[in-house]
Amino acid sequence: MGGQVVNVLVTASGGGTGQSIIKALRLSRLKTNIITTDINPLSAGLYRGNKGYLVPPATSPRYVEVLIDICKKEAIDVVLVGSDPELPVLSAYKEQIETATGSKVVVSPPGVIEISRDKWNTYLFLKENGFPHPRSALPDKMWELVDEVGFPVIIKPRAGSASKDVYKLTNRDELAALLTRVNDPMIQEYIGSETEEYTSGAVMFDTQILGVISVKRELKGGMSYRAFADNYKQIEAMVSNIVTALRPFGPCNLQMRMAGDIPVTFEINTRFSGTTAFRAALGFNEVESALRFVLFGEKQPLNYQRGIAIRYWNEVYINYEDYEKLKDKQVIENSNSRIIDYF
Q1: How far apart are CA 137 and CA 280, in angstroms?
Q2: How does pLDDT run across 35-69, given as a tens digit for each residue?
């Protein structure tokens, strides 16, 4: 290992998860060469790695081919996934990509991705395995659910992230109106309080959990705005039990609320998180852990320090020459972007 430089590809580097992965790589003890991708030339992460590539969306038939070409060209060692839409594609083509390039793709198997990506499947998984969960229904059974649990209820898309199109509804008229606005919706019992919401991360390789961290969070715009990392033992124990049953490959995130004295899970995401950088700053670097396992076979226990993270806005400044070059050539190397330390 020594002074080896690890070539890492971070996808969807314009989003919160992709940027959080980049930050965790910067905090890693490993030497890395960071290559980034995104579909938008105004994505900040494209200008903050060593080289950034414009790529087609994951829904494009060219997506996998383009990613393979980049992995070959840059001798990529590890691919880290930064967005939800890419997960099922990279999971399905993981073996093909790894065979063609020699790169390692950190992504869970298709069956695990299907459980986490489809929130109805998440509900079924929790229910069938006996874990506390919000009572839920699809539209054809929603009025029966309302009669059972009362208002408020939550409506959300079966596939989604960052609380997009998630609504708290207080009466039948609101539910009927939102039903046509939310794509492929499901309805859930409203659990607990916003003041008792937690996001937890775990890392599992070869059925072994390397660590669990939980943070109590305050949300703004669907993202964790303030995060309080502490020893929430009851929640960590529930996370360990759920992750053991799910068996992801690498990172897994769970959202919970307390219902009385019981932690109730309402969402699972088998990927890195927008709070991955928070965790890394507190010593729980799941990105470094993933690199060490897939490259060197290391399974180092992950621990953390208690702490508070407060998120704030910052800017990346780029010049027009780099922006135009990226649009024209589809790639930018060693950009002149800068972040001013003025806060």
Answers
A1: 37
A2: 999 999 999 999 999 999 999 999 999 999 999 99
E-state strands within 185-290: 185-189, 197-205, 208-220, 223-229, 250-259, 262-269
CB atoms under 10 Å from CB of 196, counted, come to 14
Q: What is the pLDDT of residues 99-133, one digit of tens each?
A: 999 999 999 999 999 999 999 999 999 999 999 99
Q: In Å, what is the CA distance from 129 to each residue of 125, 202, 242, 244? A: 6, 18, 8, 11
Q: What is the largest CA-CA distance in the chain?
A: 63
Rounded to two decimals, what is the model's pTM?
Answer: 0.96
The domain that contains 224 carries what CATH number? 3.30.470.20
Residues 6+ apart with CB under 8 A from 275: 20, 199, 201, 215, 217, 224, 227, 309
Which residue from 68, 74, 94, 67 is spatially nearest to 34, judged by alpha carbons? 74
Q: How many domains does the chain have?
A: 3
Domain span including residue 244: 194-310
